[in-house]
Amino acid sequence: MVIALSVLDLSLAALLILALAGLSLRLGLGIEQRLVVSAARTTIQLLLIGLVLKLLFDNVHFLWVAAMAAIMITAAGREVMARQKRRFTGWWGFGLGTLSMFVSSFTVTVMALLAVIGNTPWYAPQYAIPLLGMVLGNTMNGIALGLDRLTQDAAARRSVLEARLALGQDWNETIADTRREAIRVGMIPIINAMAAAGIVSLPGMMTGQILAGTPPVEAVKYQILVMFLIAGGTGFGTVVAVSLGARRLFDERQRLRLDRLRTPQD
Amino acid sequence: MQAMPALVLHQLRTRHVGPIELTVAAGECVCLRGASGSGKSLLLRAIADLDPHQGEARLDTRSCAATPPPEWRRQVALVMAEGQWWAETVGAHFGAGCEPGWLARLGLPAAALEWEVARCSTGERQRLALLRTLMRRPAALLLDEPTGNLDEDSTARVEALLDDYRREHQAALLWVSHDPRQAARVSRRRFLLEDGQLHPDTHAGAEGGRW
Q1: Contact B69/A254, CB-based, under 8 Å?
Q2: Which of A166, A169, A255 lies at the smallest CB-CB distance from B80?
Q3: Do the Cβ atoms of B49 and A255 come closer than 8 Å?
Q4: Across the interface, which of A163, A168, A177 has its CB nearest the CB of B70?
Q5: Hey, which residues 53-72 in chain B have their CB within 8 Å of chain A?
Q6: Kind and range of the H or E element at A129?
Q7: A212 within 8 A of A2, measured Cβ to Cβ
Q8: What is the pLDDT along chain A (266 residues), one digit of tens a residue?
């Protein structure tokens, strides 16, 4: 049922990228190089993951799935770190986001696999890897946004935070507003996505399933499931990451320690 | 009345400052001067335990390290040169309200608590910031240029109120001022902070300290 795409079909679509790069050159936008490199990365990375998934599907083994999941979460942790303007120094820079994603994305995905999908084995890669990928990708966005907001805000409002400490407020009360705002910022994209789904946007996963021949209502049910999983993963992940980060901004004597953040480069 | 504690600094050291040995007795006011950048504010921040430091600060025998930080900072209250405000109205920063007598003494109406912070002048904010700290009844006050933005009349009012608070509560005051005449008015013991060390301040201000 699936209409297979040939190299020629993809090349036609790639003309769009080339045309855009040409326009960028013409208008002096200076992004043509990044555009082409990103498009090339998409092609190579997705082809590779296609091969990896094929291999994984042919050799179903828990350890292979676990190894794949570990690689995905490490990559996501690095990405969260790279998106921070003022990230935490030392291991915290990488560990904070990674740990929070592990706690939320993994739990949510495993719960869905065990309780909702109920395949045998429960870690069947055809379900486990795409689900984890979608939850992880969105959780990563939420955590990156939330942490970035937290640290930027703490740096910008340093004097206010210290004035509150000087008045005898504890660290928790002092950072509460900043933390609340950071968590909101991390969660708003998925809330908006849920609100707009189906009316403004047709989510990619559902669209893909429909293109591949799944009956629309089945595809929609999966999309609803995925939306809820993403919301859960993003929400809890952001809460964990921002809360840990907020605690880390203060030391054992409840002093604001902005020296635990790297000063922004450039 | 319960005996109030003295503020004792022992071998206190922070960035560029120290080691500092100083005891401010209960009910005493000690003034600190120094060129800008000499570390006056850093010293006050270290005493309030807002910056990492070595050595010790105590209230009598109770050391800073053995006191939960929020409690220490309520007891040894730092009033920063630039007051900071985070809520819309002045009153939201006070918690339990403000003594009307104190507002009046600083030339502020009782309605000042309902003011929007954004509409207050710098001078009004500075006086209100002092009051919001005093309302927490600290045993020691670390004052960083508490009259820096005030005219002569308001300055006199603030000095008088702090004088009363000191005597009534037997509070220990460490007062940073750039004005030698003010230093002479409010304190008997005065120091100059230079090269990270305290030197007796020999500047001849007005004759005789009031305190």
Answers
A1: yes
A2: A166
A3: yes
A4: A168
A5: 65, 69-71
A6: helix A125-156
A7: yes
A8: 578 888 899 999 999 999 999 999 999 988 899 999 999 999 999 999 999 999 999 999 999 999 999 999 999 999 999 989 999 999 999 999 999 999 999 999 999 999 999 888 999 999 999 999 999 999 999 999 999 999 999 999 999 999 999 999 999 999 999 999 999 999 999 999 999 988 888 888 889 899 989 999 999 999 999 999 999 999 999 999 999 999 999 999 999 999 999 988 65
